[in-house]
Structure to design on (922 residues):
């Protein structure tokens, strides 16, 4: 009865109805259908009829079994080390008041916005066969094997600890320092206060970030592709099955094995852990009061943070330096040849990548905002399902998405293989969840009464959205645009399955250079890419200031 | 007389937050009407369903059952933007990205009025609420009281058939609230907009309304003018919720059409007024409601009840006493206390009740 009334209401607002239908259809076609296709193909080893022989093979043959357990082992290790590092870093910044907080925080965000395999590239430049440290400094006296588990552990930890750091920073900030002060006034030592008050209160954040980093490591494709050596992981194994051996059912099966743990991690994190949290993260962080720690504690935390940031700088600096060398490991004389190559031969890659990312970004942003609005503000049957679907690609590893698009859109009526559109679609729907999440978060901060007031004053739902909601969501919208643009520019795991001769991407070019051992060239490509990202960042800040109402109010005050 | 706004057997059921299967009847079959130009308040403790009722009238919630009529038209299926209502929100809900002028003009723009007419109306309304010269400010630059006025101006500029006010003064501090209460009263006397006003503050309800609808647990307990609600509460809840009250056990000795004789447990008798059409019967057990401000100290021989003083609080314009009697502790309020010789703590006193301060409700 109630549902019926909801439908009746929506029926009276045709624009709203159209938006709901549009979002639902798009999510079904471009999110559900490709993933379903992967599952479907894994049950069809011979192309017709269904059976489980693929999965039987995956669990009995050692060649197939290894990647699954390798991925799990790597994921668990990276998550554990990454969270530990992230926690120490977050604690240093929020609770120890180390000097240079802004600097440390900025440095920690490098790995998030840079192309996914720059760190792996740096690792090869430093520790590879012609590595600067292994070859030049140690002259091969110490045998470091960078290809394999240990190399991946170091590289992925560096790449993904910032995720843990950001989550934990938020959690630690929202713990009221008064609780720690209360503990101290009740005669607990600082050490005891940490273990009995601060640590238990941050536990939900620790578990959440562990699961996040675990998923990221499981889904990582760029780093293992160039660094895994004989240590096969699921994402790369699935890729090689499909593009190397053309065994689509087996590749699909491996992708499904990759999908299951990441989906579990995602849903546990989202629907179970989020309810366990002691603190509402949405609230304002309490005023930053810091109990001044002893000189020694401060010195230790500063040193540890400096060491960590030092490694980040070493890695990124090495790639930067490498981009100006003639032939890494052999001839380190400086040259601009690599950049000349990038802007000459590589200019096609640059143009294509920029073009595709620029097209995809606004679509993803607008669709994300519309979805967020519907989910957070409108009552309609299946609202929760739409929300879950829109966030799903967040949890689905790029490899699975890529295989899905490859399988789903190679026949009529959706014959998209080889077109620019398929790449754009991958970008739009893969980065949609961030827009949805940002939008929903922004909406939850806007008093719903503000929109009700607009309706009450005679505006339609549609007009309310454009006049009231959209301007208030602008900051979230631009943040989503930035994220989508950066991620599209640096994407590899999903798009590698759908790129064609016609449309090429910088990331693919970098991989090509690495495979040809043209490390200096790869480094130059990487830095050009980083340059684009930095320009986008400044552009975004400028546009945000131009359009944000807070900025207008600030100017009106002045 | 036909009502301008009429609510019939309205029910609103929400899904409970605690468990999926259970439901909450926030509004449980209420009916009332508002005459044209009248201001009525929905008064009750939090969770009584008053705000939900208002939101149902405004179109922000869909009724589970029942009907809402405005000016003879059933509006159940009209969305808020189609209803002839304007709402003043508890949080004001001012658009933070628009200036005061833009906020007030917003609704008129939705009506597609020509821009010079919009300008005239907005400036007129700004004058009505006393906010001239602030039209270029953003809400973030205004004080709480000013924001409140903008919210009000934004609603009345629409010349709604019905103005809905959801605890509009609850976010103001005590002093400003009092001031705005008086201003709202003046404004309502002047503009005579048919209004429904939600509040949990009985003083606000008493000051502003033509009639008060007292609600509890999703149901209406009493609808009456402020004077009659105070004078003739229909049950113990209303008597206790509106104003202060002492409750004494007693019995009806005699009844007449509009009054009765009460017999207290100590055998003392007193007369009390009753509303016309009451249904009290001789011998019935009742609760006697005695308002603290209608009790005076006297000799024991002339007293309705005797006791001794256990506390005394002096607040300037009034003094309040607690007197322990064999019926429990009673509160006594004396105005202009400096003019009287008042008892001190532990003193034995007699209390006498003025007839207008006594009401009778059914024993529960």
């Amino acid at each position: 009865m109630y549902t019926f009334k909801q439908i009746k209401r929506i029926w009276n607002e045709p624009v709203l109805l159209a938006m709901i239908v549009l979002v639902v259809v798009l999510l079904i076609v471009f999110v559900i259908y490709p993933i379903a296709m992967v599952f479907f193909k894994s049950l069809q080893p011979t192309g017709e009829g269904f059976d489980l022989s693929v999965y039987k093979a995956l669990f009995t043959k050692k060649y197939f079994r290894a990647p699954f357990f390798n991925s799990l082992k790597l994921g668990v290790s990276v998550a554990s080390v990454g969270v530990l590092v992230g926690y120490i870093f977050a604690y240093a910044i929020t609770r120890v008041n180390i000097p240079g907080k802004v600097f440390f925080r900025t440095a920690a965000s490098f790995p998030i916005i840079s192309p996914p395999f720059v760190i792996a590239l740096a690792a090869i430049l430093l520790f590879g066969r012609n590595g600067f440290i292994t070859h030049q400094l140690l002259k091969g006296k110490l045998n470091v094997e960078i290809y394999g588990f240990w190399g991946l552990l170091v590289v992925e930890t560096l790449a993904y600890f910032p995720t843990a750091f950001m989550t934990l920073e938020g959690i630690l900030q929202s713990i009221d320092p008064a609780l720690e002060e209360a503990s101290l006034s009740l005669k607990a030592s600082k050490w005891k206060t940490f273990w009995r008050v601060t640590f238990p209160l941050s536990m939900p954040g620790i578990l959440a970030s562990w699961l996040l980093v675990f998923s990221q490591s499981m889904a990582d494709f760029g780093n293992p592709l160039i660094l895994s050596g004989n240590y096969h992981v699921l994402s790369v194994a699935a890729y090689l099955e499909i593009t190397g051996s053309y065994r689509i059912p087996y590749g699909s099966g491996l992708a499904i094995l990759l999908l299951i743990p990441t989906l579990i991690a995602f849903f546990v994190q989202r629907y179970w852990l989020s309810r366990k949290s002691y603190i509402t993260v949405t609230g304002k962080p309490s005023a930053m009061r810091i109990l001044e720690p002893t000189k020694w504690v401060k010195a230790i935390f500063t040193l540890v943070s400096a060491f960590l940031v030092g490694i980040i700088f070493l890695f990124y600096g090495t790639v930067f330096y490498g981009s100006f060398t003639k032939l890494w490991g052999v001839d380190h004389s400086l040259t601009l040849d690599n950049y000349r190559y990038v802007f000459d031969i590589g200019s096609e890659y640059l143009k294509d990548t920029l073009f595709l990312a620029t097209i995809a970004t606004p679509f993803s942003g607008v669709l994300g905002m519309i979805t967020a609005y519907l989910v957070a503000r409108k009552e309609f049957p299946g609202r929760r399902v739409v929300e879950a679907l829109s966030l799903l690609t967040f949890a689905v590893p790029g490899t699975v998405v890529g295989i899905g698009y490859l399988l789903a859109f190679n026949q009529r009526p959706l014959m998209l293989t080889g077109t620019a559109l398929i790449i754009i679609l991958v970008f739009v729907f893969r980065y949609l969840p961030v827009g949805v999440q940002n939008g929903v978060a922004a909406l939850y901060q806007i008093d719903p009464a503000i929109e009700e007031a607009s309706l009450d004053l005679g505006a339609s739902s549609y007009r309310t959205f454009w006049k009231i909601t959209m301007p208030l969501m602008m900051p979230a919208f631009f943040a989503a645009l930035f994220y989508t643009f950066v991620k599209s520019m640096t994407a590899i795991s999903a798009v590698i399955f759908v790129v064609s001769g016609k449309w090429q991407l910088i990331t693919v070019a970098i991989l090509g250079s690495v495979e040809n051992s043209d490390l200096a060239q790869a480094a130059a490509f990487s830095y050009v890419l980083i340059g684009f990202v930095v320009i986008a960042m400044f552009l975004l800040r400028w546009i945000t200031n131009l359009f944000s109402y807070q900025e207008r109010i600030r100017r009106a005050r002045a | 007389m036909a009502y301008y706004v009429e609510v019939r057997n309205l029910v609103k059921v929400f899904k409970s937050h605690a468990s999926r299967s259970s439901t909450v009847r926030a509004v449980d079959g209420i009916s009332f009407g508002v005459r044209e130009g009248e201001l009525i308040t929905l008064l009750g403790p939090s969770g009584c369903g008053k705000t939900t009722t208002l939101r149902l009238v405004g179109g922000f919630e869909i009724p589970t059952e029942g009907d809402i009529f405005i000016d003879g038209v059933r509006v159940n299926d009209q969305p808020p933007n189609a209803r002839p209502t304007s709402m003043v929100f508890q949080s004001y809900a001012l658009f933070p990205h628009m200036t005061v002028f833009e906020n007030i003009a917003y609704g008129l723009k939705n009506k597609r009025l020509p821009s010079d007419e919009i300008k005239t109306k907005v400036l007129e309304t700004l004058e009505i609420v006393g906010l001239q010269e602030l039209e270029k400010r953003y809400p973030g630059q205004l004080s709480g009281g000013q924001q409140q006025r903008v919210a009000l101006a934004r609603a009345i500029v629409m010349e709604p058939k019905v103005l809905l006010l959801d605890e509009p003064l609850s976010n103001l501090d005590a002093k400003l609230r009092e001031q705005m209460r008086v201003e709202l009263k003046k404004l309502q006397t002047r503009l005579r907009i048919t209004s429904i006003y939600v509040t949990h503050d009985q003083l606000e309800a008493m000051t502003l309304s033509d009639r008060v609808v007292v609600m509890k647990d999703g149901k209406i307990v009493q609808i009456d003018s402020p004077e009659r609600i105070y004078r003739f509460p229909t049950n113990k809840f209303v008597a206790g919720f509106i104003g202060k009250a002492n409750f004494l056990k007693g019995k009806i000795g005699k009844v007449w059409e509009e009054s009765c004789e009460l017999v207290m447990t100590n055998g003392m008798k007193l007369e009390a007024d009753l509303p016309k059409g009451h249904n009290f019967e001789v011998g019935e057990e009742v609760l006697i409601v005695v308002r603290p401000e209608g009790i005076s100290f006297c000799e024991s021989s002339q007293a309705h009840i005797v006791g001794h003083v256990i506390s005394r609080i002096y607040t300037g314009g009034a003094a309040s006493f607690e007197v322990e009697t064999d019926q429990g502790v009673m509160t006594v309020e004396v105005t202009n206390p400096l003019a009287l010789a008042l008892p001190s703590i532990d003193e034995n006193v007699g209390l006498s009740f003025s007839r207008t301060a006594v009401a009778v409700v059914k024993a529960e």
In short: The longest helix of chain B spans residues 174-191.
